[in-house]
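protien #1 (seq + structre)
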Amino acid sequence: MGLVAALQFAPILLFGAYGGMLADRMPKRVLLQLTQVTMAVPALALFALYTAGVVEPWMVFALVFARGTVNALDNPARQSFVIEMVGPERVVNAVSLNSVIVHTARIAGPAIAGAVISLWGVGPCFLVNAVSFAAMVVALRGMDPDELADVPRPSREKGALRAALRYVRATPALLVPLLMMALVGMLSFNFLVILPLLARFSFDAPASGYASLVTAMGVGSVLGALAAGARGRVSDRLLVLSSALFGALILALAVAPTIELAAAALVPLGAASVTFAAGVNSALQLAVIPEMRGRVMALYSIVFLGSTPIGGPLSGWLAETWSPRVALLVGGVAALIAAAAARAAFARAPARSARTPSPAPPSCTSARRRPPPGSSRPYRPGRSSRWGSSQGTAGGSPRRSRTDPPRRSPS
């Protein structure tokens, strides 16, 4: 199971940056349709192999790695597509709503899978998984491209990945959240590894005990995502506080004497974890210039999901060598260190609103974004609109109406 998890997320670590570059160069709606269709293929293959009775472990490993490779292209495009659908004013709400859906699915999905397995066996689960991708394709094809925000495409030149890394390194509003997620993602977000070991070896609980822990964390995650969406904004202070609270609650879980108290601690812990992850995601999308968004969100995927092949085995080794509680202690301390270091870094960095995009480096040419084709709505300076406002949105420069007189580009 550990090898399966590593093969699932290792491609994001290896190819995620190239997936971000592809997301910047291609229309994301088209790219996502291709990746969703492609990700159905390994599921169909596994269904066929299992039904024929010829499936072998190496086949499962190969198919998991293949799906993970497609996900390395899909994830950056999907993450950076959010702001094109809803605009910068609603991106925090949209990211939080996505977290609600994800964590609700993590509660309902295993329950549905258990029912399917008990009634028809394991094979149909793979078939249902393959068919589920059709819903995503239908939703993407049903979108009106004219309603999506117009995003400039970077020029096809060498060194695009290095340019993104230089841009992030020179922008504290991007670098600090990414470093926070790198540390916390590697050492603190390993509950899929630690919780079953905690239930089995620390509390000597049956499978139902593990299920209760997962359910408690899932409920807390949904509540935390709803609260984050209602807040509608993200700040440096929110990132620091959520990381500190996350770490403190992990430490409380590590010393919980009974499984009932552990489940009680997991409810606020789940809320804090989602608040932190959604906050980092939203802060990055709001602070980056549009033509860099795919590559920056690829870096987010790398430090969040791509760190699993490193952090998962490390947490498992700590749990096996000492105890699951020690693995939790390490994760809690890591989140507290991330909060303290980020607080100091934000204090040294120049003040910047999370809603103001960072300036592009000299090598990046930012194209002016326009309202969707066919729109007759005039641009009014200082007034928020469907496509942004003149007070520094993620679009870069203020909007202009088609009726405005042309002006010479500053470049």
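ok now protien #2
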Amino acid sequence: MRIAIDGKCLGSPRAGVARYLEGLLAAIRALSPEECALDVLQPATATGTLRWTLVDLQRASGRGCDLLHLPFYYGPLWPRCPVTVAIHDILPITHPEWFPASWRSPIRWLTPRTARRTAAVVTFSHATAALIRDELHVAPGCIEVIPHGVDPVAFAPPSPSTMERVRSRFGLQRPFLLQVGAIEPRRGTDLAIAATRAVRESFPDLELVVIGAIRAAVPALESAPSWVRRIGRVDDRDLPSLYAGAAVVIAPSRGEGFDLPVLEALACGAAVVASDIDVHVEHFAPAVEFFESGSAKALADAIRRVLGDGVRTEQLRRTGIQHAARFRWEDSARAHLQLWRDVAAIGGSPLSSRPTMKSASRTDEVSLDCEHPHRSSH
């Protein structure tokens, strides 16, 4: 079985989709499945995502692969082989106000069409799966929930000497809160700044460190006070020391499809305070301190609870390491491989005959068949 995989996200600039695909590919290669050959497709020269998807992947789908896996929301309009697609979230569709028009428009236009015309949709939480079912009208049997993993070698508690060396290199001599991830309005950096300001009344030496490339303007960050440190992109080798060295890692996002930085922080022994959005609760409930999403006051109160209680802090750090160990890329790889076998076995037909998925908000089953491009004349 020859599996072609869209690898454009592995180029520059890199984002969370690349982290997913890297972890998945490394685990599949380690498993060495005899019946599966991977062909990672990447552009030879710089090209736009739309051209790559609609032209280059369209051509590639007709070059002898048994299945094409799309790790980024959407794919070619008329693929010539069975397709599976990873939809990380549908926030550009449900909350378009959070994204620049140039970025959200292709996703809003192409994602629903791709989701309904593929053999299977891969997503990473049951909360997102329910939204894909209800908002994109995808049959529950066509949706496969496969949580992410974390690399236990790359993301583990660092030694004290390594942690001190990294902190010194970044000039982090004071206690600090840490937020990690691409910067955009939905990520709640405005809440982080407001909450840190309030907490500094009790902990005046506290700084806020923000790591991540700017994807969209956040006004609160542009006029941030001096105790906000914006570092930008950081080498993965330094992240464990920054996670573990933080007084608290905060995840104030208003919406996510999974939130890998939270999992990485837990694996490194960080104490994490996270918004109580559905995805966070689903995956991280035993191991983090929650606050009411969207409330800077609730975030400040949660940070104070952790900073003021050393026993609670150590409990979060220990529990986080144990909890993160449950998320393995090997498990993700096995689930992807089984999905691709299932698709190949039925010739790329939609997997709508699979058991239906239930959601907490709506328990009635949806009787929809996935549209299927391979039955057309294209």
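The first helix runs from residue 16 to 31.
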